[in-house]
Amino acid sequence: MFAHNKRLQYTVRVSESNPGLANLMLEQFGGPQGELAAAIRYFTQALAEDDPGRKDMLLDIATEELSHLEVIGNIVAMLNKGAKGRLAEGVDQEAEIYRSITGAGNDSHLTQVLYGGGTPLTNSAGVPWTAAYIDTIGEPTADLRSNIAAEARAKIVYERLINLTTDPGVKEALGFLMTREIAHQMSFEKALYAIQPNFPPGKLAGRPEFTHVYYDMSHGGPVVRGPWNTDSKWQVVSDRAQQQGVDGGDGSASVVVSSEEEALLNQMAARTMSDPAADPLTGAELGMGAADGAAR
Q: Rounded to an integer, what distance in angstroms lies between the CA atom of residue 40 and that of residue 73?
């Protein structure tokens, strides 16, 4: 059950309207790294979670993400206030209104004209929010890793947005939201490592003959060794021939078909066989004309 409290989780103070900045802020409202995507991701994971501790954590964080959606949405709305009124009431000359909402080449006119300076569920480029942003797979060790990465990406977007504004109130609110991404990363990582074992994800172990093999497939430049491909922990395979048919087979593909299927396949192959001795005159050659040396 949800109950809404009209007090924001963090106070929003905006010094002046800035529709261009408002448009960029939509990235965290209706974008792939935004607060709605996070809230839905964690809420749906919580519904299917059987572990009571993880279920509680996911519901807590999902609900907090909705609070963050409200904060970022209010920032967008406040930044749009001035332009919203001017555009709605038509108090400026048409060209001046356009200049005021496009600013230094931003696309805020899309949200101003289409959504009246509101807070649409789109990213900063006007692309509608989609459930395709939710990448839950239903395996806790995989989903928690994805959640950690999602919080990391959101944190980076907030950093970039902070660097775009000089408004102290906006910077402060964005700094809070960015910091909460760090806190959520830590919670998710603690929850991941509370599952033992947690790697590899799922139940089945990998085939041991391939688990610690590193295929050195990118040749032609400097070879850099690190913990991801050191000889002490990995069997490094650089020989091209040894990178093919690694199962001991010839590396081809085959299938067993019935005699009826084989007959039909042979019939199709005979019907569609190419004649390597043929040299037909094509429409492209006819179009080239004699001047191009295509005449026969």
A: 16
